[in-house]
TrEMBL record:
<dbReference type="GO" id="GO:0004095">
    <property type="term" value="F:carnitine O-palmitoyltransferase activity"/>
</dbReference>
<dbReference type="GO" id="GO:0005739">
    <property type="term" value="C:mitochondrion"/>
</dbReference>
<dbReference type="InterPro" id="IPR023213">
    <property type="entry name" value="CAT-like_dom_sf"/>
</dbReference>
<dbReference type="Pfam" id="PF00755">
    <property type="entry name" value="Carn_acyltransf"/>
</dbReference>
<protein>
    <recommendedName>
        <fullName>Choline/carnitine acyltransferase domain-containing protein</fullName>
    </recommendedName>
</protein>
<comment type="similarity">
    <text>Belongs to the carnitine/choline acetyltransferase family.</text>
</comment>
<dbReference type="InterPro" id="IPR039551">
    <property type="entry name" value="Cho/carn_acyl_trans"/>
</dbReference>
<dbReference type="GO" id="GO:0006635">
    <property type="term" value="P:fatty acid beta-oxidation"/>
</dbReference>
<feature type="domain" description="Choline/carnitine acyltransferase">
    <location>
        <begin position="15"/>
        <end position="121"/>
    </location>
</feature>
<dbReference type="InterPro" id="IPR000542">
    <property type="entry name" value="Carn_acyl_trans"/>
</dbReference>
Amino acid sequence: CEWTLEHFLSMCWSSKVHSQLIKEAAMGLGFDRHLFALKLVAEKRGLTPALFSDPAYNAINQNILSTSTLASDYLELGAFGPVVHNGYGIGYSLWNDRLGCIITNYSGHSDGLGFLQALEESLNKIEKILKTLRPSHSSDD
């Protein structure tokens, strides 16, 4: 596949949107946390609003990917289990020249090896796009 400027710009845009979502979530602005808090308040009052038994609410709470960056000078890698039976727990660390991750899943409920292979393939494609289309930088950067 020949990588185009469109691939590069799409990846840059996606990264920008993702960064904004991370900032909003870190500030408690993720809608799912607000709904979760409302559910807890309702439960404490003995209420069961229809929203919380709606299939759509259940669907948005099926977090198949549960990820966490382990940004610390004292940790290389870490792991945790998936939050749903058919999901994956992914702990990852980033360095200047590499990344590492540990992927966990429940045997028989999801394909951990298949996920790892797809992740590796995706990361290799991203690397090719960046090497092909990113402006050259000196090795001092």
